[in-house]
Write a structure and sequence with these properties.
5 helices; WD40/YVTN_repeat-like_dom_sf; four-stranded antiparallel beta sheet; 32 strands; repeat; 425 residues; 10% helix; WD repeat-containing protein 79; WD40_repeat_CS; SWT21/TCAB1_mRNA_Telomere
Length: 425
Amino acid sequence: MDDVGFESIFSTPENRSLEATTADELLKQRYTTNETTVQPLVGVSENQLLEEVSELVEERLPALNNEDKIWNAFLSNSWTSVGVTKQWKTIPKGCKFAPDGSCVISAGEDNVLRCFNTPQRLWTHPETQSADIDLNEVVTLKEGGTVYDYQWYPLLNSWEPETCCLITTIKQGPVHMWNVDSNELVASYRIFNHLDELDSAYSVAFNPQGDKLYCGTDGIIYVFDTSRPGRDCEKRDLRKTGFKGIFSTIAVNPAMPSVYAVGSYLQTVSVNSEPDGMPLCILEGHVGGVTQIAFHQDGHLLASGGRKDDIINIWDLRYPGKTYLVFNREVTTHQKIQFNFCNKYLISGNTNGNVTCFDLVTGAPQERNFSVDCVNGVSINPKLPLIAISCGQRHFYIEDNDAEKKYKLKNEDLSLQLVWSGPLG
């Protein structure tokens, strides 16, 4: 595989913008006469383009930056389904919006990752989205084994195809980097154990700059330089510090990139620091193995949730070892039930088909039902008041020998929903 160009692509140039590019695309379409092809603008500076993008967003979505939009939508019961893909033949394993909000991806139990574009109408005319919008798969990535984890490249920019990358980790295979724009495998990061056998990563995470890739195995963190695929990496054996178990989830602090957290199936969370990666503290308080951890945008709060564990612990890292808040949800399976921070709120799925929105200030919860099945994935679009919800779980059947039929023990809903939580009109 030709790795030429990786250093230039996955380095951290100072001029690379973290802003959304979908709005840029819409603005360019506004200035071009060709409806099918977006042509570059002539005589328009980048600053002028960004200014007009801001004006366009403010004009179309006046409440886009209102942090209370989701909470108020909960209270007014005004969440509106704008797109549903139904009758999946596989169970979705969560969902994640791209960093620029241009698309959402979901992995299935058939080892395929499916990518869907955010409907263009939601960027231009959200007031007309009352009718359902069809979601069509624009990209499908076929993996060779069970998908353990997947993460977007944090500096993804839709106008720079070489940055439209996704990391996946699978059972008994290397960590893969895919280019979603070209639907190609562009790099592999290989982990070898003490017997020089290929090992699997159970979790992966980028740092905010995108130049480091963290991979979690059984008791060990491997750190790769993103620009150098292959087997060269830094090995950090945390078992020597007393922190053991399968590392099922990793999160890097967005405000303090030198701090990252690791969740273990042994019901504990370790907060580590660079450059040696040694633990600063170990947090306990779960009755099930930790399946997800997430940092708040300000870097002070850390949330952790586990399998068959009905609580989400919120930790204030300024006072480690003591829970700041404890939220209750329903998790009755071993699935990873996703949650996400959104300013002063935290939104989580539940196995009873509800989505719960928690206020981080008052602790008050609000619930809405979106499915007859489990809601295992919740992802918030970073640029629009739009939420993706994935539903589904494994179902067991009972047999009626007399009728020679099989019956499901409960209703099944395998779907990906997009829910609009902002103003209409």
